[in-house]
Amino acid sequence: MTEPVDVLVIGGGVNGVGIALDAAGRGLSVTLCEMNDLASATSSASSKLIHGGLRYLEQFEFRLVREALTEREILLQAAPHIIWPMRFRLPHRPHLRPAWMIRLGLWLYDHLARRNRLPASRTLRLGEHSPLQPHLQLAFEYADAWVDDARLVVLCAMAAAQRGATILPRTRCAKAERENGLWRVELEHTSSQRRILHARTLVNAAGPWASRLFGSVLSSPPPATLRLVKGSHMVVPRLHEGNEAYILQNEDGRIVFVLPYERDYSLIGTTDVDHDGEPADATASDKEIDYLCAVANAHFRRQVVPTDVIYRYAGVRPLMANGDGRAQKASRDYKLLLDAPEDDAPLLSVFGGKITTFRALAEDAVNQLAEHLPQATAPWTQRLVLPGGDFSSHDSLAAELTSEYPWLADALIHRYVRSYGTLCRAFLQGCADTADLGEHFGAGLYQRELDYLMRQEWAHSADDVLWRRSKLGLRLTPEQQARLAAYMEQHEMRDTYPPAKVGG
């Protein structure tokens, strides 16, 4: 039997990698397994926001909002390359929410937690140049933050690996059982290769599969039930100029975001629909697309129809089941349930949660595990800087890269800064001109970058690159995507190993 690891995490979404990172940074030995790609489910299908949850104030979830606002400040510091401030405009519709209610909510939003990096909210009069319908004359503006959700997961996995964690994507947990005071865990790679690991503690961070894992892997009844809620989004040509986002109130009480996306597009979402099927099969239905179009058209001068949709996606949120109310009312809070029989190996299960609070959730989780792992050191991630985030501002890093690589196009530098931060030097090092970047697959994706993604960021398939490590799937033609897939298949990395310590 090999030496047991201290912590074995099941699930490569944001909560799983967050726990792996926190634990590895406390000196614990960690292995994480994920049955697909990192961030292949809910954690790459979000609205791409780090936010306190303004609408949660109406549900009196003040603790959740306060925690999320606190985390917003920490994450802006931790990952300035993939998380940055964004202004949100809320058009006033008096018959839905009176102005005094919105102003009160925004005052609370401004003051529930310390706010160092973002400006306070304000009231705006919309002029004739507003992209909104002429009858919308008043709006409220506040600040939150944007995040590249899938890259957040990958960067946390890299940071965990740099601290000694073993990250095993495309490796599912087939069976886990307690044996002689440890967990005996059977892992199966997509190649059908199997291995047995032993662990002192086990973490169930399987997201939408967290309850199902008990029946299929742990052979025991789940201690809690999840409510699976599907949220769908669509990408359309840009509805408005400017870098601000819009938060739209709908007649049914829901809100819909319209976000500037990848320079040329608008991202519109989300819906809240109960989902009963396999989480991996969730898709944005035509009915949901019609709904999102209708909400956008009720607010914007520029109208959108389903045929304008360039891309659509859906994610399944694992929310705590709390009654039979509407899906939009289900809490976005989380629960950590610890099963620790005396003299036997503990199991910690994660139920619920949201991207904004993943770091706090992970710290809470490892604090609980640390009671059974006395070698664990103190919490540390409040000072976290993720790989590539060691720079002061986008503009300053762009200026440095322009000086170091004057032959790089501005658009390419812009993307490198907002995807990799200082990590881009790992694949730019030694390049003297564009030819040194190797084969061009389209839309500014070159061989050097692709090789880096395969070797350092666990990219295995074209989808991993086009929709999770980047969003270049919006821009590459079918022929270019096929060439990319062929190259990756030809140069497949057959061994799984931690990434090198590149930057950060």
TrEMBL record:
GO CC field: glycerol-3-phosphate dehydrogenase (FAD) complex
Domain named FAD dependent oxidoreductase: residues: 6-329
Key words, A-Z: FAD, Flavoprotein, Oxidoreductase
Oxidoreductase in keyword set: yes
Keyword DNA damage on entry: no
Cofactor(s) this protein cannot do without: FAD
EC number: 1.1.5.3
Organism domain of life: Bacteria
Gene Ontology terms, MF aspect: glycerol-3-phosphate dehydrogenase (quinone) activity
Domain Alpha-glycerophosphate oxidase C-terminal: 381-475
Similarity field: Belongs to the FAD-dependent glycerol-3-phosphate dehydrogenase family.
Record's catalysed reaction(s): a quinone + sn-glycerol 3-phosphate = dihydroxyacetone phosphate + a quinol
PANTHER family: GLYCEROL-3-PHOSPHATE DEHYDROGENASE, GLYCEROL-3-PHOSPHATE DEHYDROGENASE, MITOCHONDRIAL
Protein name: Glycerol-3-phosphate dehydrogenase
Example GO biological process: glycerol-3-phosphate catabolic process
SUPFAM superfamilies noted in UniProt: FAD/NAD(P)-binding domain
